[in-house]
Design goal:
By secondary structure, this protein is α+β, with helices and mostly antiparallel strands. It is built from two helices and three strands.
């Protein structure tokens, strides 16, 4: 039996499965020629282990909005990737103070 995933259209891999085996998630838009690589283990902390891989980024390119040319796939890292492949990693969370306008009232 091979180590490759099933080729059936009904098989939808999840982030937890990709994180267990150390895979990379590649989001690519052919129309605007952009691609980003992510560690599946980093995406699990944000989206959860039961999330389907193709549902992580919303099904459309965030830059051009095209869904037809958008693909999200997984792959194993190779030795050629060491020192050459850029990976997007979480860098922290920014909190923003929200403000609203209200009419002045007497102090309570």
């Amino acid at each position: 039996m091979t180590n490759s995933p099933p080729s059936s259209l009904f098989y939808r891999p999840r982030l937890g499965q990709a994180a267990k085996v150390g895979q990379l998630v590649v989001a690519r838009c052919i129309l605007c020629k952009r691609s980003q690589h992510y560690l599946a283990s980093d995406l699990v902390t944000v989206y959860g282990a039961d999330t389907y891989i193709e549902d992580v980024f919303g099904g459309a390119c965030p830059h051009c909005g095209s869904g037809y040319f958008w693909s999200v796939r997984t792959r194993y890292p190779t030795n050629d990737d060491v020192g050459h492949l850029k990976i997007r990693r979480p860098a922290g969370v920014r909190t923003i103070q929200l403000w609203k306008d209200e009419y002045y009232g007497p102090p309570a």
